Amino acid sequence: MIRLLAQDENGRQFLVEPVETIQEFLDYFTLDAADITNKFVTLTTQPTTVEKSLVDVVRGCTQKYGTDFIAAGDVLSWDGLGLETGLVLGDTLRVHYTI
């Protein structure tokens, strides 16, 4: 949160309501043998609301949180989920999320 101090026309200062800042991240992962075996990748940073993360396989389709992948902290995993049987060496994952 950012707190802003403003000044009115009479020179009096006052606190402006907090403004929530949101940063968007877009990570790309070209999967190697270790990624396929481990069934996870590590994101650049931790999303604020992992359920709102968007994942798709480039030249594929969008994946659904909880069905195809999950995220905990900065780790995006597909162990036992839909992406596990569909990913192959060289696939590229595009992950969009906010912090």
Which SSEs are present, and which pair or pack?
Layout lengths: L1 E6 L5 E7 L4 E7 L2 H6 L1 E3 L11 E4 L4 E2 L6 E3 L2 E3 L4 H5 L5 E7 L1
Antiparallel strand pairs: 1-2, 3-9, 4-8, 5-6, 5-9, 7-8
Structure commentary:
This protein has two helices and nine strands, in the order βββαβββββαβ. Strands 3-9-5-6 form a four-stranded antiparallel sheet, with no helix packed on it. Strands 4-8-7 form a three-stranded antiparallel sheet. Strands 1-2 form a two-stranded antiparallel sheet. By secondary structure, the chain is mainly beta. The model has no long low-confidence stretch (mean pLDDT 91). It has helices at residues 33-38, 82-86; strands at residues 2-7, 13-19, 24-30, 40-42, 54-57, 62-63, 70-72, 75-77, 92-98.
Brief overview, please?
The protein is mainly beta and 99 residues long. Helices cover 11% and strands 42% of the residues. It is built from two helices and nine strands, in the order βββαβββββαβ.
Main attributes?
99 residues; mainly beta; four-stranded antiparallel beta sheet; three-stranded antiparallel beta sheet; 9 strands; 11% helix; elongated
